[in-house]
Design brief:
This protein is mainly beta and 482 residues long. It has one domain: Porin (Beta Barrel), CATH 2.40.160. It is built from one helix and 23 strands. It has an 18-stranded antiparallel barrel. A two-stranded antiparallel sheet has the order 1-2. The chain is globular and about 60 Å long.
Length: 482
């Protein structure tokens, strides 16, 4: 399995190299009529060196409208910074987490310390008709918790966009190799996202949380790695309408035995229509096929959803989707090899920026892989964050997440039971000069499992983990490419 892990790590790295090698693209802003000339993006220089600013305080007049399609895979934003220089920025960071009751201990009064030492890099490469963003963090972790031990971790987010007349092509890849669940990992610290952070590092690809492999149950123990690669194509039909096609392939693997590994294939087609300058409606069809390694079970999931979005650059980004969901299960039980049921699926995403901060929240309901514990689950997941400037140098952040996972498979150990997981905490941060940052925070992690559930690498029990974090990060000034 460890050899398999190293192979997949190399595969994720190769995907990033292929994105880097994509080179020059071609095209035009799909939000403009085809008669307009392409905008020379590389000539619109933005405020490079603004890395000392709070990333949540980007002035509205330095943002351009977010052109992500409503029925695509990426979440909407309040705007995209008009940074058109090409540059790369290296950095380093150190975070120490002091925990009570590690995730695998299920109670007790022990305290442990886990440190993460990481090298970080963020890259932005602009061409006249294409753009590449890449954020990577990787290093070692050292823990006094025997269930964690010493190891290494990596996170990568890469996005390549091409524009050509009416077409917009997006390639994206998200990879993570972590010692614990990605749900709430590094909450309230720069460790949560790859790259150097701030205005110089985008962190992630913007992929909606429901498209990442299910990682919202803490019980699955040991290092694990996930990778999601996606392709999305948006074609402008008219000044107000477009059609979006897309596909994703996701994997979820564990180093330790006893967890359930899965592959997930997702296809998507949607129609978008802009009814006003700020409002868009749409309809989409989505299919997902989940397969479990070494097991006969598989899940086919179909949904038709209506969508609504509202975007006000520099202020608001809202997206709502919902509709019926049909789920097929292939579970051999005598002569009956098919099970089917109809339910509902939906999501909601909102980001709102105000004078001294911003607030964001995400909700999803639908079928997921099962987080390495179940052979498929019905999942309700909520995440939220609030960031605010507290003084001239101090800023504050509040993060929370909640997930309920219920097994789909009749007859599986723990079938019909729920796992409820929660994390929540607060942190403060301040710059140390122009290129360094200090943070201090607290996060609580809770898990409540139905009696008799036995999944993952060990039987589950309720637990609460308290975590205190302290962090230091530093990066160079940007190295301008052109």
């Amino acid at each position: 399995m460890r050899k398999h892990a190293r192979t997949t790590v190399k595969t994720g790295t190769l995907a990033a190299v292929l994105l880097l090698a994509s080179g020059a693209g071609f095209g035009q802003d799909p939000q403009n009529p085809p008669s307009e000339k392409p905008k020379p993006a590389a000539k619109a220089y933005g405020p490079i060196g603004a890395e000392d600013q709070d990333p949540n305080q980007t002035p509205a007049d330095t943002l351009q409208p977010d052109d992500r399609p409503l029925t695509g895979f990426q979440q909407p934003t309040v705007g995209i910074p008009m940074e058109r220089h090409s540059y790369w920025v290296p950095g380093v960071s150190y975070y120490n987490f002091i925990q009570s009751n590690g995730f695998s201990q299920g109670g007790g009064d022990s305290w442990n310390s886990t440190s993460y030492l990481a090298g970080n890099i963020s890259l932005l490469q602009n061409w006249s008709r294409a753009q590449l963003t890449l954020n990577y963090s990787g290093g070692g972790n050292f823990s006094t918790d025997s269930s964690v031990g010493n190891g290494w971790f990596q996170q990568l987010g890469a996005t390549q966009t091409f524009l050509w007349e009416r077409w917009q092509l997006t390639l994206l890849d998200e990879f993570a190799y972590l010692p614990q669940s990605q749900f709430g990992f590094g909450s309230g610290t720069g460790l949560a996202l790859p790259g150097v952070g701030g205005t110089l590092g985008g962190g992630t690809t913007g992929l909606g949380g429901q498209f990442n492999p299910g990682q919202s149950i803490f019980t699955a123990i040991g290092p694990r790695y996930t990778n999601t690669f996606g392709t999305q194509l948006n074609y402008v039909l008219s000044k107000r309408s477009s059609i979006t096609f897309g596909g994703l392939f996701s994997i979820e693997r564990f180093v330790d035995a006893g967890n359930i590994e899965s592959d997930d294939y997702t296809g998507n087609i949607g129609y978008n229509y802009q009814i006003t300058r700020a409002d868009t409606i749409g309809i989409l069809y989505r299919y997902s096929s989940i397969h479990y390694l070494g097991l006969p079970q598989a899940i086919g999931d179909y949904s038709i959803q209506a969508a609504y979005g509202r975007k006000i650059t520099g202020r608001l980004a809202l997206q709502l989707t919902g509709g019926p969901e049909i789920t097929h299960q292939r579970v051999p039980q005598g002569t009956n090899t098919q099970q089917q049921f109809v339910a509902g699926t939906g999501s909601a995403t909102i980001s709102y920026a105000f004078e001294k901060g911003n607030i964001s929240a995400n909700y999803f309901h639908g079928v997921t892989t099962g987080s390495g514990v179940f052979l498929g689950a019905t999942t309700d997941q909520v995440t939220g964050s609030l960031s605010r400037k507290l003084s001239r140098v101090w800023s504050g952040n509040v993060n929370l997440g909640f997930a309920r996972n219920r097994s789909l498979v009749t007859g599986q150990s723990g079938s019909g039971r729920n796992y409820d997981t929660f994390y929540g905490g607060a942190s403060v941060a301040r710059p140390l000069g122009r290129n360094a940052n200090f943070s201090l925070g607290y996060t609580a992690y809770l898990e409540r499992a139905g009696s008799g559930i036995c999944g993952g690498a060990s039987c589950a029990s309720d637990f609460t983990t308290n975590e205190i974090s302290i962090g230091l990060s530093w990066h160079t000034r940007p190295f301008v490419l052109h």
